[in-house]
Amino acid sequence: MEVQTLLALPVVLALEPVEGEPPARLTLSRDEAAELAALVAADLHALVPQVEAARLALAGALFDQVELLRPGFPIWATLDELARRVPRGHLQNVVAFGSHDGHMPAQPLEPSAIYAGGPMRLLPMSLLAPAELAEELSEQLEIQLVGRGEAGALTADWLMRTLGIRLEHVRYLSRNDLLALTCVQYEHVNLAPLWALLETALLTPEREESTMSARGLALRYADGKVLAQSPSQWLAGQAGDTAERAHGLAGIVFELRQYAALLDGHQLPLQLQPGLALAVEACDGYLLETLAEADPGYDPPSLFGHEAPGLGVVAISVAQRGAHAQPRLLAHAWPLQPQALGKLLARLSARYGIAGDLHALGRIMLDEQGRLTAPATVLH
Q: Which of 138, 167, 187 delimits the end of a domain?
């Protein structure tokens, strides 16, 4: 057990494979990880000689940035915890963790195949530095890695031979560099509001942050989750004719699906703001808002699918035929992932005790006030 306090300085080795040549595997064996760690240690010592007083801990696994940039930084936290268990001086103060029998030593260090097709592969590491050295070493890493952080030729060659790929670039980044790079990437695709929420969740999770998407959907981060304005509530505040409103709603759902996919990757939960609904809930790949309870005095509820070109079903309205044969709306549901539609239909079928048949409308159906609605009678 160490008496000296060691502070963890997170670093990453960023690999940019030639386009169309992703690595065939995402982890290194224990021996391979140890070989790479020795090469990395030599690179870092040449860039920042002060690393000699720190312990290098390396995970022999290749991740996407959404896996590394999650609240609490669980991959780095796991790596640091494992490294602190190793006696100081072991392996000349360099410790590496690789796979054994196809598994990494802890679950957070297992890369997901879901994100394996990304343009950049990231290998996490930490420098565990004595408290009195940590600030100076951190400053030097920020300065030197930005300016001259290319990996050495031996390291790049080893990676290409071992992984069987060609690499355009191999360079070291601090975690702050990775955060800045991700910010630029999200801003480039018009997702700066998403980054504002994610940055708060990563760096100051105790704070709240409010923003608005590019299309005007209100978003807020609080208590470890992102709360989105309901698309139906957004719709109620819009002007224009029915066609314009329907087109705008399709755009909002498209945008919300982008946010949902990225937030899922970063493991940041997405929920609906309560709004005027009786209840809201977030399930596996969809959002659901309840507007009213079913009335046993009316016909059983039916499910109606609002559709938009290129997006498929953008919303499902649950409605009963009410007084004067008018629709009585019970709920709106928003499928955000392609595989969520079947699960959503099963959920609604069980909830209302009806068949899970979806009556496709072929369009987004709005009433005379421009609100999401349903036909007065079931379509056949």
A: 187
One-letter amino acid at 90 equals H
pTM of the model: 0.90
Which tokens hold the place of 304?
């109606």
Note whether 44 and 178 are same-domain residues. Answer: yes
Using alpha carbons, select from 236, 234, 373 the residue that is nearest to residue 315. 373
Instruction: Quote the pLDDT of residue 2.
Output: 47
- Give me the amino acid identity at 215: R
Instruction: Please give the average pLDDT of every successive group of 10 residues along the chain, which has 380 residues.
Output: 75 94 92 97 94 94 97 97 77 85 95 90 95 92 91 96 94 96 95 96 97 95 95 91 94 96 95 80 89 90 96 96 82 93 94 92 93 76
Residues 164 and 194 placed together within one structural domain of the fold: no
Range of the domain at 364: 190-380
Per-residue confidence (pLDDT) for residue 341, from 0 to 100: 93
**Which of residues 145, 170, 187 is at a domain's end?**
187
Q: What is the 3-state secondary structure (H, E, C) of the chain?
A: CCCCCEEEEEEEEEEEECCCCCCCCCECEHHHHHHHHHHHHHHHHHHCHHHHHCEEEEECECECHHHHCCCCCHHHHHHHHHHHCCCCCHHHHEEEECEECCECCCHHHCCCHHHCCCCCEEEEEEEEEEHHHHHHHHHHHHHHHHHHCECCHHHHHHHHHHHCCCEEEEEEEEHHHHHHHHHHHHHHCCCHHHHHHHHHHHHCCCCCEEEECCCCCEEEEECCEEEECCHHHHHHCCCCCHHHHHHHHHHHHHHHHHHHHHHHHCCCCEEECCCCCCEEEEECCEEEEECCCCCCCCCCCEEEEEEECCCEEEEEEEEEECHHHCEEEEEEEEECCCCHHHHHHHHHHHHHCCCCCEEECCCCCECCCCCECCCCCCCC
Same domain, 179 and 224: no
At 358 the pLDDT is 94
- Residue 132 CB-density burial (10 A; 0-12 exposed, 13-18 middle, 19+ buried): exposed
pLDDT value of residue 89 = 54
Domain count, the chain: 2
Same domain, 173 and 294: no
What was the pLDDT predicted at 275?
Answer: 72
